[in-house]
């Protein structure tokens, strides 16, 4: 049974997303990276994460749009918003 925490990193900045992913994997988290709010919202896994690290300012659907969409779905996943 996999007991590693699943973290989503949603950021359109490739370097920042990759850096966070490497750091979190080094700390033994199971990390899935998304390059846009649309990619995250289109994922069937979005409700399975233990935490989401979300960029506030992205092209397309930004962090606030993602939060609003997740609120309407009543997602209980904690979000950490970065900018």
What does this structure look like?
By secondary structure, this protein is α/β, with parallel strands linked by helices. The chain has helices at residues 14-26, 37-41, 63-72, and strands at residues 6-10, 30-34, 51-55, 79-82. Strands 2-1-3-4 form a 4-stranded parallel beta sheet. Strand 1 (6-10), helix 1 and strand 2 form a beta-alpha-beta unit. The longest helix has 13 residues, at 14-26.
Binned, the helix content reads 25-40%
Helical run tally: 3
What's the β-strand tally? 4
Order of SSEs, N→C? Answer: EHEHEHE
- Straight-line N-to-C gap: 35 Å
Largest sheet: 4 strands, parallel
Neighbour order of strands in the largest sheet? 2-1-3-4
**What is Rg?**
12 Å
Low-confidence stretches: none
SS class: alpha/beta
Report the portion of residues in β strands: 15-25%
Q: Please state the average pLDDT score.
A: 94
Q: Categorize the overall geometry.
A: globular
Short description:
This protein is an alpha/beta fold and 83 residues long.
Key features of this structure:
83 residues; alpha/beta; four-stranded parallel beta sheet; 3 helices; 4 strands; 34% helix
């Amino acid at each position: 049974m996999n007991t590693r925490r699943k973290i989503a990193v949603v950021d359109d900045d490739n370097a920042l997303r990759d850096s966070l992913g490497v750091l979190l994997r080094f700390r033994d988290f199971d990390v899935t990276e998304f390059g846009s709010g649309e990619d995250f919202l289109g994922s069937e896994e979005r409700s399975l994460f233990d935490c989401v690290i979300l960029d506030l300012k992205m092209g397309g659907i930004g962090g606030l749009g993602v939060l609003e969409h997740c609120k309407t779905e009543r997602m209980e996943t904690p979000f950490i918003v970065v900018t």
